[in-house]
Amino acid sequence: MTPDHRVHVVPWLRRIGGQMLLPNWLAITIGRVIVSWRPLDEAELSHELAHVRQWDRFGVLFIPRYTRASWRAVQAGGDWYRDNAFEVAARAAASVRAAESAASAAARVAAVSAEAGHPGA
Ligand SMILES: [Zn+2]
Questions:
Q1: Which domain holds residue 94?
Q2: Number of structural domains, the chain?
Q3: Residue 78 lies in a domain
Q4: Which of 17, 51, 69, 92 is most buried, judged by most C-beta within 10 A?
Q5: How far is the centre of ligand 1, averaged over its atoms, from the C-alpha of 105 (Å)?
């Protein structure tokens, strides 16, 4: 189920976020507010919605928990962002959503092929 959320697209934040967050940042989620510098595709939104769920679960304690997860990632020889457990979970949610989209697109193609009299591959 999709959690309550709001998305704000603020193009001029691209440069500032690149300096303050990550050079190639796209979006940040604070509570149920998602801020991005361009519209998000389905998988990108799924990633941010995973963070909304994390915020729903931990409240403001999400911040120290996220920080601790980054610290642990670095201690383990990883990257503070990429290997952060909250980011790993969000990427997993996004790839599940991308797989669902691909499967439903394939089902639509098969349905159209069947209507046209061509059995789906
Ligand atoms: Zn993320």
A1: 6-115
A2: 1
A3: yes
A4: 51
A5: 26
